[in-house]
Design a protein that fits this description.
It comes from Salinomyces thailandicus. The chain is mainly α and about 290 residues long. It has two domains: about 25-210; about 220-280, no CATH class. The protein has ten helices and four strands. The chain has helices spanning about 20-25, 30-70, 80-110, 115-145, 155-165, 180-210, 220-230, 235-250, 250-255, 265-275; strands spanning about 5, 10, 75, 150. It is elongated and about 95 Å long. The two termini are about 50 Å apart.
Length: about 290
């Protein structure tokens, strides 16, 4: 038997869960398809941004080493961009960790039951990931658009000559906004932020629906299950069930319970129950 970790059966982690019918064709779970699309957009954009920033960061670090090797007195200062790109990597990894985990948990264990503390932790992490990526996008944008590197320890002419001899990836300009990878990293950072915000909102809506609403499933899925359960109910039990419903209709004050379900959904549920009842199972009067 597959082990259970933190109340999650690991046996449900199967490759078949990744097929499109299960991921996007299954409408039984609240906001399932929307979350899968938005979560993946946030992951992709953030990863692309941090990858481009990492490539530019690597070039600037190699440029420092190259110039230092050519002239021990020269030093290329581009630490501001190195720091901004490094923080962008952290923000992207944090977003991928939170919403990547949310994606896999919803994929493999959509009907899981979480404690209040776990739900609070999800919300806190969602907000922190949004703020962290906003800070990364702002910092990367400001540094790339307004700053540039420079060479110290030698004259300006010699510094430009040393930098000009560095030809990795076609050269690494000291003016960051002239670096195509650095600019592309900024663009994808903002695309990532525009995906992280709705991801956080969807996370909150999903948790609130599980806490205050009908649960992780959609209303039509619950109605369909109720209709199926009624259709497969033994005749004797179904008769008593019908009597209870008639009593509820005749004396609503005896069985009234506040409900947040929409009247239209209730009417649809009633229709599904009647349509799902096999004619052969209906008792006839003799």
């Amino acid at each position: 038997m597959a082990p259970v970790v933190w109340g999650l059966p690991l046996g449900q982690m199967q490759w078949s869960a990744f097929n499109s019918k299960n991921m996007f064709g299954n409408t039984d779970w609240h906001l399932r398809r929307t979350k899968f699309v938005v979560y993946q957009l946030a992951l992709i954009f953030c990863v692309v941004s941090e990858s481009l920033g990492t490539a530019a960061l690597s070039d600037y670090v190699d440029e420092q080493k190259f110039v230092k090797g050519m002239n021990n007195n020269a030093y290329v200062y581009n630490n501001d961009y190195v720091g901004a790109a490094s923080y962008n990597i952290f923000a992207g990894v944090f977003v991928a960790f939170i919403f990547g985990a949310a994606f896999f948990f919803d994929l493999f264990w959509p009907e899981r039951h979480e404690s209040k503390s776990v739900r609070i932790a999800w919300k806190v992490c969602g907000v922190l990931s949004t703020l962290a990526h906003l800070a990364a996008a702002l910092e990367l944008t400001i540094i790339t658009s307004t700053r540039q590197g420079y060479v110290t320890g030698v004259s300006q002419a010699e510094g430009e000559n040393l930098v000009g001899q560095f030809h990795k990836d076609g050269g690494t300009p000291l003016n960051y906004k002239k670096n195509g990878r650095a600019v592309a990293a900024v663009v994808f950072a903002w695309l990532g932020f525009c995906s992280v915000v709705p991801s956080c909102i969807l996370l909150f809506l999903s948790i609130d629906n599980a806490e205050k609403g009908p649960g992780p499933k959609t209303a039509h899925a619950e109605n369909r299950e109720a209709a199926h359960e009624y259709a497969n109910m033994p005749v004797s039990q179904r008769h008593s069930h019908d009597l209870e419903k008639q009593t509820d209709i005749a004396h609503p004050e005896l069985s009234y319970q506040p409900s947040t379900r929409d009247p239209i959904e209730a009417h649809r549920a009633e229709e599904e129950v009647h349509s799902a009842t096999p004619a052969a199972d209906i008792p006839t009067e003799r």
